[in-house]
Structures are given as C-alpha cells and as structure tokens.
C-alpha cells in the first residue's frame, strides 16, 4: 500500500505538510536554526508518531478488552546523537495508566501487544534506537 504525503515550502524554514487523512501540520525550525518556531520539529514529530501509533493500539485494546481506565498518557524521552546526521539512539517510553479499577495484567498485555506486534512505528524505531519501555499504574487516590 503506497502512502503519499505532500509537503510545501512556505518560505524561510517553514513547511506545510498534508497527510493521507487530509489534515495539515506545520514544520519549522527553531530560532537558533533560522526558523520562527511556528511548527513541529521533524525529529520531535517522529517521537509523537511513535507515541500516537502505540497509543492508538492501546486505546483500541482497552475498548476491545472492556477495561476501566480513567486516563492514560505516554511520555517519551530520547537521546539525540552529537554527530551528524543526528538521530535518536536511545528512546525511553513510559506508559501511565490512571484509574480506580485498573486491571494491571490486561493493561500490560495491551502495551505488550502494541510494542511487540502491532505498532509499525515501533518497529521502525527498533532499526536505529535502543528502546526501553516501562508501564506505570496510578490508582485513583481518595
């Protein structure tokens, strides 16, 4: 299946990119690199893509497994190499689940299925990064 993305230069260091869903996003460099910080940075956007890919998997599995989760989020910290071309050589991904009735075993299974089987972006990152993934459960306090 071919995927097409169209990215148009808007002048200076700013671009507008349209993806297959028809939604647009803006990409720009920081002021230190001649931009105006009016858009996403490309490398950070890759991390958002990783979190979004796995997050969509986990959200679908939460629904399918009928799990009681009040909220969850994914935090990513990544190390950028010093030499050009700079890339993320280490990526730490933390899944945080919140709720009063968390089924930790099933939620961990949902995370595991995403990272081991479903998330294609995760597989792409495996080609160039050392990944560490942790899951945290936060029961609602009274």
UniProtKB/TrEMBL annotation:
Signal sequence range: none
Record-linked Pfam families: OsmC (PF02566)
Top-level taxon in the UniProt lineage: Bacteria
Classification via InterPro entries: KH_dom-like_a/b, OsmC/Ohr_fam, OsmC/Ohrsf
UniProt name for this protein: Putative redox protein
């Amino acid at each position: 299946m071919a995927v097409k993305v169209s990215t148009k230069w808007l002048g200076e260091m700013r671009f507008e990119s349209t993806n297959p869903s028809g939604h647009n996003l803006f990409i720009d460099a920081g002021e230190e690199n001649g931009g105006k910080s009016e858009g996403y940075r490309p490398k950070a956007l890759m991390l958002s893509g990783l979190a979004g890919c796995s997050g969509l998997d986990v959200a679908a599995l939460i629904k399918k497994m009928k799990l009681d989760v009040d909220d969850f989020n994914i935090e990513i910290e990544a190390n950028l190499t010093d030499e050009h071309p700079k890339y993320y050589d280490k990526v730490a991904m933390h899944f945080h689940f919140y709720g009063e009735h968390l089924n930790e075993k099933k939620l961990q299974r949902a995370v595991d299925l995403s990272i081991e089987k479903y998330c294609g972006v995760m597989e792409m990152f495996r080609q160039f990064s050392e990944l560490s993934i942790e899951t945290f459960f936060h029961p609602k306090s009274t």
